[in-house]
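Worked example 2:
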Amino acid sequence: MREVVVHGWPYFVAGLGLLMSLLTSGHAIIYKRDSRAAVGWVGLVWLAPFVGPLLYVLLGINRIHRKAAGIRGDECEHMASVASFTCSPVDLANHLPDGHGHLASLAQVGEQLTRLPLLTGNRVDVLCDGDQAYPAMIEAIEAAERSVSLTSYIFDNDRAGRRFVEALAAAVRRGVQVRVLIDAIGARYSIPPVTQNLRAQGVRVARFMPSNVPWTTPYVNLRSHRKILVADGRVGFTGGMNIREGSMLSLNSEHPARDVHFRVTGPVVQELQATFVEDWYFTTGERLSGDGWFAPAEDVGSVIARGVPDGPDKHYDTMRMAFHAALSVAQRSVRIITPYFLPDAALISTLNTCAMRGVPVDIILPETNNLKMVAWASMAQMWQVLEWGCRVWLTPPPFDHTKLFVVDGAWSMIGSSNWDPRSLRLNFEFGVECYGVELAKRLDALAELRMREARRLTLEEVNGRSLPVQLRDGGARLFAPYL
């Protein structure tokens, strides 16, 4: 027997390596939409036995199938309250001012992508930096009587985070149902993690897709980047702002960051809550329902809006396709503010086509990025948008984490999505598409302020980089799908 083991183990190892390569390359061939990605992965799993298949399992499987936790049962009864606020693409044209009827086609795209209704009667307030956003969010938590749901990618255990912990703990002591969901990777941004603090205070907290060992949760690359807070099912907050002291410029932290967040009220808050409910159910198995979580919808404003969930599940590619659609219908102006700009070839083509049609396309980025490799990779492909007329603006410090997309002064996409492959293909994101001239004017004014403070990047500057810098930037771009 020992002889069999001694002489047979090389054949066993070789057979195991062959089986792993066959299974992973077969999966890549069947499920990878991009043929170049499929070729790359197949080459890796055969050229690097064991290592290649392991990397594919950890980083290459970019889709998961989640049990539907959507809106059913008791949730359906409460979502039924938004029925009187639904707005069809045809009806939307009647709500838009003269000269903006072409944007109604975006509503049809959004309906097909999300299967969620467009809703009238909403109000969206712009909150700049944590200095405005955090007090408003904490005020909503302190006023809550029934429920608070909060999800964030990063929730730091710092001066800002501890204020939220105190407010959430006080809500629990008042008898409010509180649920907090933090991404498992984002929870590790501070030591000790804030989850310990929350649990010690009696707050129900869970980590989204913990990945301590790859065989229990193999999707280490798929993270929840969503930021949603809902109080009593009536007041919601969303955008791109994490919970960390750097977002509060008044605290003079070591790494300050400008940002914009949004307070949302009206029927669309139901869609924010439904997204949280699904994520919470997926993570914990607990179904949240009832009046405390889904309050009756009320007309509170003039913004027509729809929640846009995006992620590597049933909502795969939703945000990227929404970006394409918005650029395709733009006629007057496009304003994009994003901290990370690594669009794929198709999105670059759509941006360029938009600019070539005569639509001013302004892309506003931070001059100094908090992720150097992202900045290098972004610069490596910047010539591709500059040569066809897109205008790129670089804002001075502090680092700008803002995420905005405004088209023709009437359509806005707010939320957590960046313009990079990780955000548009791998992460769970959430946005709200908004139709409203007043809101768009406010966001356009914010973009114009950023541009006045910024300097314009030229094609000559990009082409004039030294050879070592070009090689560095080009090397970083090779890792663009996972930056």
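The chain is about 45% helix and 20% strand. The first strand starts at residue 119 and ends at 128.
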